[in-house]
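Entry:
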Amino acid sequence: MKAGLIQIHSIPTEVEKNVEHGIEMFKDAVEKGADLVVFPELWTCGYYLETFDFLAAVKENDKILEKFQALAKETHTVTVLPLPQKKGEDLYIGLYVIESDGRILAEYQKSFLWGREQNYFVHGKRAYEPLETSVGKIGTLICYDIEFPEPSRILALKGAEIILVPSVWSIPAMNRWHIQLPARALDDTVFVMGINNIEEGAGGCSKVVSPMGEVLAQASDSSEEVLVCEIDMDEIARVREKIPYLKEYDKNLAPAPELR
């Protein structure tokens, strides 16, 4: 299976331009053989915005989803599409998982909010469920969620093979990016893929990490890039034979889903 990570520069508030550019990058990933394509957090609108900007971006969601559902079906590609979401009066940082036949399989809302995000968004439910797809069993987290060990461990205990982490990860925090993604992959013996933005304070370095915690592929820290990496799903079983963390984990110690 080949994964395509879209490291893009999101122009603030320019949803239409960002989507057009994102579609070009999506097609590039598919041409390079990607079976799974993942975009970064809030890529359609940008990160450092105000509430009215996020609300304006949400109004475009239906059209954007229709475009990417059609693309997913046409190219037989599983697509993970982060978008701001509105439920009732509440705004969320969210994403949608689109199967290779164009169906929306699930959505997820970011459960841990970093800093200024708490001024605009509501925490998603701290319930972590992996999803069966045509490329494997995937778990989705968003940015700050991966900085806590419990969500990825819960996903792994429930059978996740790949954990996807769309992000806007800032340059001052890149040391944590380089430590925590490999740590989560090794701790839970799963593939971890971090998909980051560039510009607007984000540090790029989107990466694919193996169940051994080894970085298999990494994008630059400052340029747009379509990073396509082939992964061997059988590696999970081989690593777990050598490093039986999950087998020997005392499930009585598992945190409650609420993580309180």
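Residues 2-253 form a domain with the Nitrilase/N-carbamoyl-D-aminoacid amidohydrolase fold (CATH 3.60.110.10).
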